[in-house]
Amino acid sequence: MKGIILAGGSGTRLHPLTQVVSKQLLPVYDKPMIYYPLSVLMMAGIREILIISTPQDLPNFIRLLGDGVQLGIRISYAEQPHPDGLAQAFIIGEEFIEDDDVCLILGDNIFYGAGLQSLLIDARNIVENDKKAVIFGYYVDDPQRYGVAEFDQSGKVLNIEEKPHTPKSNYAVVGLYFYPNSVINIAHQVIPSKRGELEITEVNQAYLVEDNLHMQLLGRGFAWLDTGTHESLSEATEFIKTIEKRTSLKVGCIEEIAFSKGYVKSQELIKSIENKKSPYYDYVKKIISRA
Question: Which EC class is the enzyme in (predicted)?
Answer without folding.
Answer: transferase
